[in-house]
Design brief:
Radius of gyration: 17 Å
Order of helices and strands: HHHHHHHHHHHH
Number of strands: 0
Shape: globular
Strand content: under 5%
Number of helices: 12
Largest sheet: none
């Protein structure tokens, strides 16, 4: 059950011309990883729609205010540290992602920040995703900014995290928790999901 450009625009109207770019690569990626039923496609499109700003952002936006840093990462930013790092995306990435997820060298947090439609993050995840896709994403992380690899990496992430099973059960909260680690943006994710279910009916 491939999705059409018209359907994608009905679900993600802010995608604009990007919808035409992404329809073929989304259909290829979804087909490869079994995201082929109404429930699976609706959940997948809702999640990638939220994570990518409706297909308009393929690199994580780390331009946080001090308040945003303390709210998003309370264990990493007190007021002093948040004030010093505010609006400095590279510094923020290195604080938040440095020393974990395989990021061991100085600057790895920034180099392996979230990319693709579901924001693959961390050197370990870039390596695993690259192995699955036959690409050297450790040396060339920017490849995930290309539509075909942005879509394929999202479908790969979906598959390795067992999200088809949760989508089959209609468990959008469970899907969000596996993608986000919390329920950030759940209201928008739910609205996109509800719209997708109608459009794909």
């Amino acid at each position: 059950m491939p999705i059409t450009e018209q359907q994608l625009l009905q679900i993600l109207p802010n995608a604009g011309r990007q919808a035409g770019v992404f329809v073929p690569v989304l259909n290829t990626a979804m087909g490869k990883y079994g995201i082929v039923t109404r429930l699976r496609i609706a959940a997948f499109i809702a999640q990638v729609g939220h994570e990518s700003g409706q297909l308009t952002r393929l690199v994580e936006n780390l331009n946080y205010s001090a308040e945003g840093l303390m709210k998003t990462w309370p264990s990493r930013f007190d007021l002093v540290r948040a004030t010093a790092a505010a609006r400095k995306p590279e510094q923020i990435a290195n604080i938040v992602y440095g020393g974990r997820m395989g990021n061991t060298a100085p600057g790895d947090g920034w180099k392996y920040r979230g990319r693709g439609l579901i924001q693959v993050t961390g050197k370990t995840n870039y390596a695993a995703c690259g192995d699955a896709m036959g690409l050297d994403l450790v040396s060339r992380p920017e490849l995930l900014e290309q539509p075909q690899y942005a879509a394929l990496s999202a479908a790969w992430f979906w598959s390795v995290n067992g999200l088809n099973t949760l989508a089959d059960a209609g468990d959008l909260k469970g899907v969000t928790l596996r993608i986000n680690g919390g329920l950030n943006g759940q209201t928008e994710r739910q609205a996109l999901y509800d719209k997708a279910l109608k459009v794909l009916a």
